[in-house]
Design a protein that fits this description.
By secondary structure, the chain is mainly alpha-helical. About 85% of the residues lie in helices and about 0% in strands. The chain has one domain (about 20-120). Helix 3 (about 25-65) packs antiparallel against helix 4 (about 70-105).
Length: about 120
Amino acid sequence: MVASDLQHLTADQQQMGGSPVTSETTTERVDRSRGAELRTLAILWAVFTILGVVFALIVPHHLMGPSASNTMTEVERTFTAFSVASAPVAAVVWALMVYSLLRWRRLELAIFCAARAYAAG
């Protein structure tokens, strides 16, 4: 369609009290929807990052038990530091996965693929 076609309504639409449609309103609508999508992803990312950091600070200490040497203490500190540092990256992956599953409603397919990959590997 040509831009001039978008700016004019048909006679029927004008009689019904419609307003001219322009590419600007379409662009604004797309920008608003992208903004909402990005906001949702940002919220999911923040939540998953917080959960990942809390997990990285609490769980390894309980899994590894008390330190028997200085080397073990350093290993625990390194493990915790790398886990905290990787939490935001892992959160992006989880946020995109959850958003995609919720947005496109392919939960059954995702479960099937995960089960198949688990069985193969």
